[in-house]
Design brief:
The complex is a heterodimer of chains A (418) and B (147). Chain A is an alpha/beta fold and 418 residues long. Chain A is built from 13 helices and 17 strands. In chain A, a hairpin with a 2-residue loop joins strand 1 and strand 2. Chain B is globular, with a radius of gyration of 14 Å.
């Protein structure tokens, strides 16, 4: 073997982002007779071959329960499951695997913190500070715990271009604020929030910070140690893994003091009818048999992302967003919703002559998948005075051709509804 | 492409462009708010009753072309009809939208709504106004949701 036949990983990270498209089998299909242009990545992104292979292999050869049996398959399953946890830990730069809790997704991760930390911490008169751009999943869990404890939920306003009003945020952050919960990236607007500043301000005020990272993971690589956030929540299916698996990162000192969220198997050390001793972290928060295959698939997705040059990815997505924004804005009656300076590749828009749902159906007939509706962010829709928007959201495998296809669909919708 | 044309037939596009009986009705006997949580669509239906008939009917709100056209076609059809006839019509429309059986000829213009059968995600858009009508005529409550 010659010296030049080095393995790909030795050659460094992948910079040719365009080459990655062929790794996603789902993108090769035709929809309504047209090649699929998949632009609904903020809802769910497709899985690359390595993730699909990992899922199949796990189910085919290693399907058994974890942490239970002494038999070989159970040991393999445990190794694969815990191996995935270590991959996630390393990827996020967390200090230990005990800080990585596997959940069903971002929603469950946030509910866990709201119920467990919120339930233990919040008293009447305390406040939970969120923002006006949060997904319902980062609103309702806090509303529920506020109702239970008598605490108050306070939303910080956003500006007309969809950015967090930092001055107002600072003003609303008081000694009553016990928890700050904020999206890393807004699902409806694409806005990337200034997390470093938010976390610094919140900590100075003595509040704990949960970051909803659901929309960030496909575009950015969070370093939880550098961010110094207390919790970071995300879902597998928005980062090239399947549905039903997600992660809660939490600082050990906090997770340790928090009461369990759900009871069941796995989360205990010993049980009697008088007293139960809870298991160590992270198992204290993983009641019941976990989604083992999902975790293994997430580990494969993390490996896949780890192999990519994120500067090249950012440049690729920036080009797509800029191109798509220009093309959509040039259509008659188009209005872009969310024009923050720092945006992820998410383009929400309305056409004044065509309702978002009709836009969605017409572009689907051209093989183009976008999301239409309120995007589980009704307060955002209200803020911008629209009942619904159409949203094209991009991932690393999209290209300018997908944008052109979207424009063809939109032009058809305009023609139909003229 | 043909399926799309089946969905957005000319009569649908026309009623979306210029909805009939659009606006508020003063002195309405029944006012029902209809919401489609999936789309964020909202419509309010106003019904004036007299002698067992729908003496007058109007609607207002925001919605997609299917939702607006369906409500518009509905008001056009049931204005002046008896409550009994209108309830029967609701059942026929409901059966048509959910794909049971052939489209009855008696539906006439309303048969245009049959195109949504190929688009399960849009059935709720087409049924919103009709559910509001049923609620208004039953006098059950003042709010209806497609969920």
């Amino acid at each position: 073997m010659s010296a030049s036949a080095a393995k790909p990983e030795q050659l460094g990270k992948i910079t040719d982002i365009g080459s990655l498209r062929s790794r996603f089998p789902a993108l090769a299909q035709r929809v309504r007779g047209k090649p699929l242009a998949y632009l609904d990545n903020a809802a769910s992104s497709q899985c690359p071959d390595v993730v699909l292979d990992a899922m199949l292999e796990q189910q085919r050869s290693n399907h058994a329960n974890v942490h239970r049996g002494v038999h070989t398959l159970s040991e393999r399953a445990t190794e694969a499951y815990e191996g995935a946890r270590e991959k996630v830990r390393a990827y996020l730069n967390a200090s230990g695997t005990d800080e990585i809790v596997f959940t069903r997704g971002t929603t469950e991760s946030i509910n866990l913190v709201a119920a467990s930390l919120g339930g233990a911490l919040l008293r009447e008169g305390d406040e939970v500070l969120i923002t006006h751009m949060e997904h319902h999943s980062n609103i309702i869990p806090w509303q529920l715990v506020c109702e239970r404890t008598g605490a108050r939920l306070v939303p910080a306003p956003i500006t007309d271009n969809g950015e967090l009003d930092l001055t107002a945020f600072e003003r609303l952050l008081t000694e009553r604020t016990r928890i700050v919960a904020v999206a890393h990236v807004s699902n409806a607007l694409g806005t990337v929030n200034p997390l470093e500043r938010i976390i610094e301000l919140a900590h100075a005020a003595g509040a704990r910070v949960l970051v909803d990272g659901a929309q960030a993971m496909a575009h950015l690589r969070p370093d939880v140690a550098a961010l110094d956030c207390d919790f970071y929540a995300f879902s597998g299916h928005k980062m090239f893994a399947p549905t039903g698996i997600g992660v809660l990162y939490g600082k050990r000192a906090l997770l340790d003091r928090m009461p369990p969220y759900q009871g069941g198997g796995e989360m205990i050390l010993s049980v009697s009818f008088e007293k139960t001793v809870y298991n160590a972290l992270p198992y204290k928060f993983e009641a019941g048999t976990p989604n083992i295959t999902g975790a293994v698939a997430l580990g494969a997705a993390v490996d896949f992302l780890d192999g990519i040059d994120f500067d090249a990815l950012a440049a690729h997505e920036h080009d797509l967003l800029t191109y798509a924004t220009e093309r959509v804005a040039a259509l008659p009656g188009a209005r872009i919703i969310g024009t923050a300076e720092h945006k992820a590749a998410v383009l929400s828009f309305v056409l004044d002559r065509v309702h978002a749902h009709d836009v969605g159906t017409v572009v689907d007939s051209e093989g183009v998948a976008i999301r239409t509706g309120h995007h589980c962010a009704m307060p955002v829709m209200e803020r911008f005075g629209v009942p619904a928007t159409a949203r094209a959201s991009f991932a690393l495998y999209n290209n300018r051709d997908d944008v052109d296809r979207l424009i063809v669909g939109l032009e058809r919708a305009l023609e139909m509804f003229s | 492409m043909n399926e799309l044309r089946e969905l957005y037939r000319e009569v649908i596009l026309d009623h979306n462009r210029s909805p009939r009986n659009f606006g508020e009705l003063e002195n309405a006997d029944r006012v029902v708010e209809g919401v489609n949580p999936l789309c964020g669509d909202r419509m309010t239906l106003y019904v004036k009753l007299g002698d067992g008939r729908i003496a007058d009917i109007k609607f207002k709100g925001t919605g997609c072309a299917i939702s607006v056209a369906s409500s518009s076609l509905m008001t056009e059809r049931v204005k002046g009809a008896t409550v009994e006839e209108s309830m029967r019509l609701f059942e026929q429309i409901h059966d048509m939208l959910t794909g049971h059986g052939a489209v009855p000829e008696s539906l006439d213009k309303l048969a245009a709504l049959g195109g949504v059968r190929e688009y399960p995600a849009r059935v709720k858009c087409a049924s919103l106004g009709w559910h509001a009508l049923k609620t208004a005529l039953s006098g059950e409550n003042d709010r209806v949701s497609t969920e």
